[in-house]
Amino acid sequence: MIGRLKGILIHKQPPWLMVEVAGGIGYELEAPMSTFYDLPELGREVTLFTHYAQKEDSVSLYGFLREGERRLFRDVQRVTGIGAKIALAILSASSVDEFARLVQAGDVTALTRIPGVGKKTAERIVVELRDRAADLMGAGAAIGAIGVAADPQSEAIVALQQLGYKPVEAQRMAKDAAEPGDDTATIIRRALKSALR
User: pTM for this structure?
Assistant: First the structure.
């Protein structure tokens, strides 16, 4: 099993990134926005914690800058009805600490604002993860910048759609969140925080 990768970041386009390791091998990984916020510039070295998932018809590799993110990704998938897509959406919409606080508080309404999480799923999250929420606290993600893009608002719209928002909704969220001079990461971060309010 692949548990960690260290190499050169050669591609990043949410939710995908590629890391080239020794021998010129490039690993393609899917990552939450919480990881994208803090990725270095292309061509720089990066170390990622990974989660390897194999199904009957596919193999997937997920990457995280922090162990706490990977742990939450794994824990949340133990909840009935939650798979990797929703787990990534949770990590993209909130930090580990913020998610743990919502679970501890039993804030079902805030949890249902995460794409793919309905009321019943949110209730199951609270019931099944409340005991583990305290362990997750302190493993939160700091938020940084992806970098300046040619058209940050358009990139933010694409990223929000990849996180599960409908095109019209993603456009509205990005437009409402964007301010002059913002980079893509700032627009996405502000849009996701507004969605959780």
Answer: 0.67
